[in-house]
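[step 3/7] inverse_fold.run input=structure_tokens len=365
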């Protein structure tokens, strides 16, 4: 039984599935089962079973201890047996409560209870004492009505609906220019709605750059997600427009973050690629380095899109963590236009190379 989780996404699982995606574990009465716990996460997991005792196999044979909770350290393996000497169905979970609620749980279900709700077996009514003097076995299924839905779909915790937002705001130290980046994810663990606006810019009271992705976001692995939907592009186009878009984002080796998004407008396919890395220098001081090329397949003048490489952006951002989720940053960005896009900017009497230095704050909400 593998214990694992996506710590940064608050998803915890047993054998690769959170509780709400897994079926109950069927057991037969009158048998002894063995569980081999393997903890491949970075946290301890006190695994707790209801209605039974674990026999922790630690090499003492008949003197192996009876435990209702077994602590499995990070990277460790533990072996335990339990006797199926009850009936009904029983909850099994990590006793770090947020791990339990985030998916590290299961239901042990006796096969006999399925026969009862399907009419193939009469309910049990028995009061007896088992082999362990401190554990009486009480079966009163006949006195307590069985809710069929709790047997057919036993589940302690359903998938939650979560809200997570990242906001980065800043102002240029040498001009009346403000910038904003916002990313919001709304939905359950694996399927969300993403709202994303990147480097929106307000200069001297007028909007210079602004667009927003409205994407469906789907987690495909611990580190990668795919997404797709529509993008509303406001500036620097001469007229706002909508365009379809798809993308992939994730974490590559060496903690290099990738966010690749593709769009299609008026026959021109555009690729917006962001690559960055955050390096921790001290306990609270970090350095972010990033590069962002934008490439298109066709020139569309009214959309401010040029054929080939449009621009390159290079970003250096030292930032200090004031408290978890709140940072103060100083960002230097060098932006340079190329090819047909550079010609479009010149025709509009706009700069083709720009250096900005902004101070700002970022928040995780």
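[step 3/7] decode complete -> sequence:
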């Amino acid at each position: 039984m593998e214990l694992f989780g996506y710590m940064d996404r608050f998803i915890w699982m047993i054998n690769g599935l959170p509780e709400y995606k897994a079926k109950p574990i069927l057991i037969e009465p009158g048998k002894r089962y063995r569980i081999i716990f393997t903890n491949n996460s970075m946290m301890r997991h006190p695994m707790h079973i209801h209605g039974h005792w674990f026999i922790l196999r630690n090499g003492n044979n008949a003197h192996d201890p009876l435990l209702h909770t077994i602590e499995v350290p990070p990277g460790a393996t533990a072996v335990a047996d339990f006797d199926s000497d009850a009936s009904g169905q029983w909850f099994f979970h990590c006793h770090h409560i947020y791990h339990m609620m985030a998916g590290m749980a299961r239901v042990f279900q006796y096969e006999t209870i399925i026969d009862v709700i399907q009419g193939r077996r009469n309910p049990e009514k028995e009061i007896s004492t088992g082999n362990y003097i401190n554990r009486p076995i009480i079966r009163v299924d006949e006195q307590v009505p069985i809710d069929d839905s709790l047997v057919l779909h036993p589940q302690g915790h359903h998938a939650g609906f979560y809200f997570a937002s990242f906001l980065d705001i800043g102002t240029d130290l040498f001009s009346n220019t403000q910038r904003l980046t916002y990313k919001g994810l709304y939905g359950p663990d694996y399927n969300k709605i993403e709202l994303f606006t990147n480097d929106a810019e307000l200069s001297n009271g007028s909007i210079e750059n602004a667009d927003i992705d409205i994407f469906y976001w789907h987690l495909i692995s611990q580190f990668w997600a795919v997404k797709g939907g529509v993008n509303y592009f406001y500036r620097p186009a001469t007229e706002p427009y909508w365009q379809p878009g798809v993308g992939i984002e994730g974490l590559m080796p060496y903690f290099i973050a990738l966010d690749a998004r593709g769009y299609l407008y008026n026959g021109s396919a555009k690729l917006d690629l962001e690559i960055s890395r955050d390096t921790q220098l001290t306990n609270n001081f970090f350095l972010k380095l990033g590069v962002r090329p934008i490439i298109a397949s066709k020139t569309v003048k009214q959309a401010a899109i040029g054929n080939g490489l449009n621009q390159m952006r290079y970003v250096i951002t030292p930032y200090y963590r004031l408290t978890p989720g709140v940072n103060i940053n100083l960002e230097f960005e060098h932006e340079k236009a190329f090819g047909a896009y550079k010609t479009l900017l010149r025709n509009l009497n706009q700069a083709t190379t720009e250096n900005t230095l902004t101070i700002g704050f970022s928040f995780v909400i």
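[step 4/7] annotate
The mean pLDDT is 91.
DSSP finds four helices and 25 strands in the chain.
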